[in-house]
Amino acid sequence: MDEPSATEPERDREDAGESVIATRGLTKRYRGGQLAVDGLDLTVPAGSVFGFLGPNGSGKTTTIRMLMGLIEPTSGAARVLGRPMPRSSRAVLPHVGALIEGPALYGFLCGRDNLLRYDAADPTADPRTRRARVATALDRVGLTAAAGKKAKAYSLGMKQRLGLAAALLQPRRLLVLDEPTNGLDPQGMREIRSLVRELASDGTTVFLSSHLLDEIEQVCTHAAVMAQGRLITQGSVADLAAGVRGRLVVTTPDTGDAARVLKEQGAADVVVTDDRVTAEPPDRDLAEVNAALVTAGVRVRGFGVERASLEDAFVALTGEGFDVAG
Ligand SMILES: Nc1ncnc2c1ncn2[C@@H]1O[C@H](COP(=O)(O)OP(=O)(O)OP(=O)(O)O)[C@@H](O)[C@H]1O
Known about the structure:
single chain; Alpha-Beta Plaits; binds adenosine-5'-triphosphate; ATP-binding; ABC_transporter-like_CS; P-loop_NTPase; ATP binding; nucleotide-binding
C-alpha cells in the first residue's frame, strides 16, 4: 500500500529551514549484543553539508542504514525529510540519493549502460527521457568521455563517480554518502570533494560520513562527532573549533630559548618542530609573553595563535587522540 503523502505541516517544517534528518534517542543493538548506536540525537539542517565523523566502528554505517530504512532501530526514532523512518521509506527514499558501501555496478557493462539499467529499475523514471537523463548525470560527474568504457576498467574514483551519477539521476533533496572517498588516491579524493561542494551549492543537503577530520573541515559546514556509538558533539564546523583555544605558535631560529621562556611564562605542552615552537597559551596577556621572548634575546619571526582545528576540538572533548585504526 502506498504511503500517504507528506502532510503540509511536515513539509512546511522542513522547508522553513528545519532539519532534513532528525533522530531522537536512536539506538541499535545487534543480535550478538553489540551496542552499535547508543541514544543518538542528531539534527541535520536543510542546505548543510553535514559531516558525520568518527573512527572506524563508531556506529556511522549503522546509523546511515537506520536512516535509510535498511535496518530497524532497537529503540528511538528517526525522521528523514520530516517523516518517520523506516515507516515512510517508500515516500521518502525517492527524494534521497544514496551511496552506501560502494556502488553496485556491472563490470561487464559500460558506464552509460550501467546508468541506463539503474534508471530502468526506477518505476517513476520516464523511459522517453532516459538517455538524456543519463547523459546529464554522466556530464555532472565528469564521466562523459569514459561513458563507453566497461565499468570493470574504471578506477576506484571513477566507480565512485559513477555511483554518484546513479544517485543523481533524479533531482534529490538529500544525498547520503557513506565514506565516499574511502580508498581513493589524493586526486580521486579531490574530485569527489569538489563534486560534493558543487552539489551542495545547488541547495541539496549532503550528509556524508568520514573518518578523516581534515576532509570534514574542507567540505562540511556542519559536523557531528561519534565515538563508540555515542554522539560527542554536533554543530557548525566553525563553532565546534571555536569552542577550543588554538595553539600559540612562535617562529624563531632560537627554538631552545623560546621553549624555555614560554615555559617560564606558564605555557603548557610546549612542542618544538623545526623553527616553530607551539604551546597551549598561558592565561596572561600575550603581549607580555612576546615581550619576554624579545627581552631574553629570542629572534621572533612570527608570533600568534593558530585557529583550533576540529582535531583539537575532538581531543579536548574526549581527552584522546583521533584514532582512525579499525
Ligand atoms: N551486522 C552486524 N552485526 C553485529 N555487529 C555489527 C554489525 N554491523 C556492525 N556491527 C558492529 O557495530 C559497531 C559499529 O559499526 P559500524 O559499521 O556502524 O561503524 P562505522 O563507524 O560505520 O565503522 P566503519 O567505518 O568501520 O564501517 C562495530 O563494533 C561493529 O563491529
